[in-house]
Structures are given as C-alpha cells and as structure tokens.
Design brief:
- With 357 residues, this protein is α/β, with parallel strands linked by helices.
- The protein folds into two domains: 3-73, no CATH class; 98-118 and 176-349, pyruvate-formate lyase- activating enzyme (Alpha-Beta Horseshoe).
- Helix content is 33%, strand content 17%.
- The strands form four sheets. Strands 4-3-2-6-9-10-11-12-13-16 form a ten-stranded mixed sheet.
- Mean pLDDT is 87; it is low at 352-357.
- Bound molecules: S-adenosylmethionine and iron/sulfur cluster (2 copies).
- One iron/sulfur cluster is lined by residues 6, 8-9, 22-23, 25, 27, 29, 64, 67, 69-70.
- Residues 6, 8-9, 22-23, 25, 27, 29, 64, 67, 69-70 line the site of one iron/sulfur cluster.
Length: 357
C-alpha cells in the first residue's frame, strides 16, 4: 500500500486570519484550528501528528483530495513526528490585512489603516515563533514569508525580522513600497536567496493613483531606490529586489505605461522585474480553473518581456499564474474560488470608501 505525503502538513505553518493552517493552497487543506480556541496551539500540533499517522495509512483529509502537493510514496517512507518536535521549513505570516494603500484589485481584501503601524488583526505571531524557536524547530532552512496586507505596517514586523536574522532564515517580503524599512535591507543582505517584491504596477503618477487610490507614487519610487542603494552599499547587485507589474486591461496595459515603468526601474538601478496578471480575474472558467485573458493583456505581456530584454533586466515571467503567451488559455492556480469571489466583489465595488480600522 502506498502512503500519502504532503510536505506542508509535515513541516509548514500558516498563521492565517482566523487560525492555524499548514498551507495556503487552492485546496482548503485540513480544517484549521481557530487561534482563540482553548489550547489552540497544542491542538494544531496534535492534529499534525494525527494527520501524518493517517496519511501513512493512505487516509487523506477530505479538503486535500486532488491537491497537486499531495504525493503517494512507497510504504514506510514517511516518518512519524512528535508533538512540538518537527522541524518547520516554511512559516507563512498571514494574520493581518491592514494596509496603507487601497488597490482596487487587492486579493486579500485589505482594510485601509492610514499610515499608522498596526497590531495584527487577531493575534500576535511573535510569541508563537518564540515557542517554535525554543523547541529548536526553526533552523537556517526555515523560510519565512509575509503574505497578508502590508508587512511594513505590522507592529511585530521588526521583531520577526530580527528573529529571522538571528536564525539566518530565508525570507520573502511582499510590500507596496510606500514605507521604507531598513530591516528589509538587512534581511536581503543577510541571505542571497531572500527576496523583496515591490508592487509598483505602473510607471506614472496618474495610473498609480487610479490603481492604488492613494497618492504615494513618488514615495514608492524613492524607496525602491533606497533598497537598491542599500544592497549596492553592501557590495551586492540588487537582483533580490523584484519590481512587480500586474497587467490590467484599460488601466496599465499600454506601451506608454510600460515604457515609463522600465524607465523608472532603470533610473533606480533595478535588476529584476516581475509580470503577472489579475489572479482574481472575472474571466475564469471555474470548472477548469482556467483564466482567459484579453488580447490587450496578452500583447502587453509580450511587450513587457521585450522591454525587460532591451533593458537587460531579469524577468520573473509568470508570478502566481501559469501563463502562456500566444493567444492560448492561461491557467491560474494560486487562488481559491472563495478568495476570487471576494476579490471580485472588491473589484466591482471598489476600494475608495474603505473604512479605517
Ligand atoms: C496582497 S499583497 C500584500 C503585500 C503588499 N501589500 C503588496 O501589495 O505588495 C501580496 C501580493 O499580491 C498581489 N496581488 C494583490 N491582488 C492581486 C490580484 N488581484 N492579482 C494579482 N496579484 C495581486 C500584490 O500586488 C502583492 O504583490
Ligand atoms: S491542501 Fe494540499 S498543500 Fe494543503 S495540506 Fe492538503 S495536500 Fe498539503
Ligand atoms: S498594497 Fe494593495 S494589494 Fe497590497 S495589501 Fe495593500 S491594498 Fe492589497
């Protein structure tokens, strides 16, 4: 008999909005433990042990059936783990959704927080990270990803970053770049494989305001330059800084905007750019989980690649979506139908009137 295996169940933790999970897959994964339940942490760990023991018998949690991260391997290849003992390879911090920006397309339905640094929405992650650390479950192989609203607006951010530096962890930070934080540069300098994504998504002030509602284009450009300069001062080429562009029809899918984007990136000394599409697109065929893109987006997609070549920049071609240019179907894997629906509503009704938290 084959055993089932998922590395996330084994060695990941996601600090989600409402509780603890093991993965951020399109599949829902095992039911999560609400963070405010009595003894939630230990329950989550016990659940990990029990699921692994079930997987060894070929029993798969219902919400994992069909997930591409689930593998079947030869019997007796999966090791049992003990409670509070297994090494954690991936930590995803996703317990916050406040943000100092109001992007109309935001897939996390962020809450506008103005410029105030905020406590995470539901619970503090740092004590839980300290717990993992004291049980020697965080190593220099542990990858820490920030994946919620805006990490630079998170009260715990510097403490978590300090812990990542102490443990020499790999990190991935997704930021809108409105606020500069020197800890981010320290993390990039500490490890060559740590990454910072900054979502600029346009090349002009007007389009920025249209897409992100707030008037902070110049701040973002200035901060991109600061991060690039920090790396250069540390003797590094700034390849770890990836400036991102989501292509939206009738918004930024034109040559003028893309040209302006590349001009700014060049002026800032950027070496890596990333292109993507709206992964909450309306034109999704739910059955096949396929995303159909408009012709203008396909054209811009190609043009973006040509410009990256022209400016001699690294291109991260398909971020969070499988996209094949040449008028073919585009598949989009990384977002669950529920998130897509929420985001669709967000998209339709806009972000302008968002309340402060
Ligand atoms: C939710 S944001 C959080 C980080 C940060 N606030 C930012 O915007 O960069 C995480 C990433 O998802 C991207 N994102 C948000 N909504 C998206 C959408 N509808 N389609 C594609 N990417 C999206 C953002 O641009 C960002 O790179
Ligand atoms: S949904 Fe997939 S990635 Fe998530 S725990 Fe289940 S098998 Fe693993
Ligand atoms: S910057 Fe935009 S995409 Fe990122 S969390 Fe804020 S509103 Fe959402």
């Amino acid at each position: 008999m084959k055993e089932a295996y998922c590395e996330h169940i084994y060695s990941s933790i996601v600090f989600g909005f409402n509780g603890y999970k093991y993965c951020n897959s399109v599949w829902d994964g095992p039911d999560f433990i609400p963070y405010d339940e009595d003894d939630a942490w230990n329950k989550n760990e016990k659940r990990r042990v029990n699921i692994i023991s079930d997987l060894k018998k070929g029993i798969v949690p219902p919400n994992c059936v069909g997930c591409s991260d689930l593998h079947y391997i030869e019997e007796n290849h999966v090791q049992e783990v003990s409670i509070n003992d297994s090494i954690i390879n991936k930590i995803t911090i996703f317990n916050y959704n406040h943000c100092n920006c109001r992007c109309f397309y935001c897939s996390v339905n962020s809450v506008y927080s103005g410029d105030e640094v905020q406590k995470s929405n539901f619970y503090d992650v740092l004590p839980l990270l300290k717990k993992l650390e004291s049980n020697n479950r965080i190593t220099n192989n542990t990858f820490i990803a920030f994946n919620g609203g805006e990490p630079t607006m998170l009260e715990e951010f510097n403490d978590i970053a300090n812990m990542a530096l102490d443990k020499h962890c790999k990190t991935e930070i997704l930021s809108n770049g409105i606020v500069y934080n020197e800890m981010i540069s320290k993390l990039l300098i500490d490890r060559d494989d740590s990454i910072l994504y900054i979502s600029l998504d346009c090349g002009t002030n007007d389009t920025f305001k249209r897409m992100k509602i707030v008037d902070r284009f110049n701040d973002v450009v200035l901060n991109i330059k600061r991060y690039v300069d920090d790396l250069k001062k540390a003797g590094k080429e700034p390849y770890q800084i990836r400036i991102k562009y989501i292509i939206f029809p009738n918004v930024n899918d034109n040559k003028k905007e893309i040209d302006a984007f590349f001009k700014i990136c060049k002026e800032c000394g950027v070496k890596t750019v990333a292109r993507t599409v709206n992964h909450c697109n309306r034109n999704v065929n739910q059955d096949k989980n396929k995303l159909f893109l408009e012709t203008s987006v396909i054209k811009s997609y190609k043009y973006f690649k040509e410009q990256a070549e022209l400016f001699n920049m690294n291109l991260i071609p398909e971020l969070w979506a499988d996209v094949i240019v040449e008028n073919k179907v585009y598949s989009c894997r990384k977002i669950s139908p529920v998130t897509r629906l929420k985001s669709e509503l967000h998209f339709l009704f806009g972000n302008k009137n968002k309340k402060f938290i």
